[in-house]
Amino acid sequence: MNRPVRVRFAPSPTGPLHIGGVRTALYNYIFARQHNGTMILRIEDTDSQRFVPGAEDYINEALAWLGIGIDEGVREGGKYGPYKQSERRDIYREHVKQLLDAGKAYIAFDTPAELEAARNSSPNFQYDASTRMSMRNSLTMPADEVKRLIDEGTPYVVRFLIEPGRDVEVNDLIRGKVVINSSILDDKVLYKSADDLPTYHLANIVDDHLMEVTHVIRGEEWLPSAPLHVLLYEAFGWRDTMPDFVHLPLLLKPDGKGKLSKRDGDRLGFPVFPLEWHDPKSGDISSGYRESGYLPEAVVNFLALLGWNPGDDTEIMSMDELISKFSLEHCSRAGAKFAFEKGKWFNHTYLQNMDDATLAEKFKPVLREHGVDPDKYSDEFLTKIVSLVKGRINFVNDLWDQTSYFFVEPEEYEAKSVKKRWTPDMPGHMEDLIKVLESIDDFSSAAAEPVVIGWIEKNNLHMGNVMNAFRLTVVGKCVGPHMFDITELLGKEETIRRIRKGIENIVPVE
Ligand code: GLU
Is 10 in the pocket of ligand 1 (CB under 6 A)? Predict the structure, then answer.
């Protein structure tokens, strides 16, 4: 059957969207675009206990930052709405009733204490065909008592009646056919009267059906729920329009040992959230890719390759390229190691491919943060500076460390270089260097360099010591791009001023 492709990203607003959730959203988006389909954002807020204020806005902001576009959703609207589950209570109630009327679900009154006692008396307790007839539910209690309890407002749940001994087939487009026996499933709770809300399982199936979802693309952690979902589609009589399942491989810790967790990020120093998150309860701040200086294109590219490959060794791909190349056949079943160093490499590479003027524009806010007014400098000057050092940076923020001496003259001089290069004869050589520089009219790198080098050679001076001492006075330390590229940008006057200051202020180390 060929239905138009409709996929959904269905996060629960229980906190900041984890990077694994972002990968799920991205794969849904890529798949939708590739098939000219529709991408739905559905907010699954049926767990009122775990609701976190701000989480929904966070999800929207993160997806927008990454360029993951939504066609139908709470903000976008659409004809299958509402797209927030807490606003769909009537729909769920009606569907629960449908299952109850058909004898495919039943009402249970067991209190938490009673369930606890049952678990204590038999360690493998599971609410299923083997135990349900000894529990307090509408299968074991007289109908009038059930009615009376409901009328009195006694809290109850609705459970799905699972027939044991049946092989349930889940067809996963990455994993192939997965068969499990229904006997291992329990009679899952579908609805709770206490908050008049369905559980994830019911809401998810009903909505996927009503929203005409064709492919359920989600994390591997949901694979164990899939057989139950198949049985639910069946119970509703929706087998023919059941979506295809796609369970994406787990994201693993960088060393491959176990599932990636928030703590790994803290431990190893990389963000596990797309945007910085300020926890409204604890006040804790978790770092985000955006605030850490990642480009959204680099994050998208990095995440796309965690669980999929293009079939060759192409690594750098734009969103459009990902959309044209993506295929489920090249998705892996095995977990994908979260190689965050590779994430840095992607960012580095995207920065190298960015044109210098654009990068200079992105550098301006960083300069402001450091108290430098970028408007005092020409775009040409900033662009040149950026071009000199960009090979050394992974993040836009790194530009400051690499170039701060262009904006702020050195006040201190790196001790180890002073010790090594500032020999007693050096102030004298620097005085001579000033004279040489004063004589140069064309201060460009290409013109000034041979004059200075010629002077060093003619006087038999030590090339390394003199050049490094020169650099020490101008930069404050002995690293950075080609010396004469630096002096060209600083200009003759400023260069000479800094050498003078160095002669006055550098104290030789014994
Ligand atoms: N609300 C679930 C989640 O938070 C959705 C799982 C699914 O896609 O079925 O991941």
Answer: yes
